[in-house]
Amino acid sequence: MDDRSNSLLYLLQLAFAPVGAYSYSEGIESLVAAGAIDSESSLRNWLENSLEFGAVRVEAAVAVRALRAAKIGDLKALSYWNAWATATKETEELRLQSWQMGRTLTRLLLDLREAKLSRRESPVASGLTTIVKDLVEVGGNQCNFAIGFGMAAACWQIEEEAAVVGYLYSWAANLAGAGVKLIPLGQTAGQQLLLDLQSQISLTAREVLQLEDDDLGSCSWGLGLASMAHETQYTRLFRS
Fold it and tell me: 20 to 30 A Cα–Cα from 20, which one of 93, 99, 114, 167?
């Protein structure tokens, strides 16, 4: 198997790693309860706008910066962007979600390395265990998911563009799945939704790779309000 095929397999494994993403709706559950999202079209509109203007594009940009820092073993940069990502979370639910998923992913990376399940040895991969452990020591259990994703992409030598596309697609797939359960929608509608989002995912990925540090920002007040409403929702299926 050539390097290109290996990279694709690593990307697929990272994008669908078992980090508990299925437990979260990122406010969609409260929006469905309020009637703001009640169909495939309204869910697609929410996800498209989130990709174009929302917090997920900033998360993807942070993942790119973590990838670059991990490649050169820059713990200071990783710690900075981890703290920066924490500070941008508008609600406790979103912050705890990111920490839980990041903690789960970094533990998975360490377990895989220690079990020697990864056969793709490289200076980056062999040094990742120390970087992850150092970051965990600095930040405790408060490693954001975007940071963990970027470090994993560096470990498995996934190219930046592919890593961003994988990050955005896994996010979209998770929330499309939440919508299928909540609205509810049929599985075919969910798959059609993901097909419809492909062009926006590709466009957002290209834009994310061109963002300078001073350009990082989003219009995510809708997400913040939905998340706050979900925190006190009487009945719910999802953790956030």
Answer: 114
Q: Which residues are CB-contacts of 222 (< 8 A; sequence separation ≥ 6)?
A: 27, 54
**For the segment 127-177, what is each residue's pLDDT rounded down to a tens digit?**
566 666 666 665 566 899 999 999 989 888 899 999 999 999 999 999 999
Q: Is residue 42 part of a domain?
A: yes
Is 238 part of a structural domain of the chain?
no
The pTM of the full predicted model, rounded to 2 decimals, is 0.91
22-68 pLDDT, tens digit per residue, is: 999 999 999 999 999 999 999 999 999 999 999 999 999 999 999 99
Q: What is the pLDDT of residue 239?
A: 84
Domain total in the chain: 1
We report the CATH number of the domain holding residue 123 as: 1.10.4190.10
| Distance in angstroms (rounded) separating the CA atoms of residues 137 and 135 | 5
What pLDDT score does 117 carry?
43
H helical segments located in the chain: 3-15, 28-34, 40-53, 55-71, 75-87, 92-114, 123-139, 145-155, 160-182, 187-210, 221-231
Residue 236 lies in a domain: no
Range of the domain at 201: 3-230
